[in-house]
Fold this protein.
Amino acid sequence: MKSAQGFRFLLILFAAALAAWLAATVALQFLPAPAPAAPTLSPDCFRELTARLAQAGLTGQAVLRPDRVLAVEVQPPAAWPADQAPQAVWAVFDAVALLPPCCSVYPLEVVVSGESHHVRARVSPADLRAWAQGELDDRELVERVLYVESPPASLLEE
């Protein structure tokens, strides 16, 4: 009789443990997934990039967006002809390519805005690194860059 009671006790204990495990497993499935960590880039990277852009005669801003894209928006000097906007894109490519490796791990999107033009170019960090190391020439990099040129928004509204 005692062994039957002991067996019944173990069976109840096992059932309770199984129920607790199942409840915890099911509950965990409905918990929200932890948010991915926000992308980060050292302030030194931004300072160095700003200095390199200034050396090229460009002003603007750089920000690491939540979608993990390093976005650089620049305005070429007023003295530059409007058809030189693509040259500003290449100046940004040069500046980012010269940054330390820890600063150039994100896709790069460059926006060049002027009075009569708006250029947007996007390149992967691997392609930019390969170009900087001479593994891709300029033509090969151009083939891999997503490139859009359009009139600025104010001209599109007319």
Observations:
- DSSP finds six helices and five strands in the chain.
- Strands lie at 59-64, 70-75, 108-113, 118-123, 146-150.
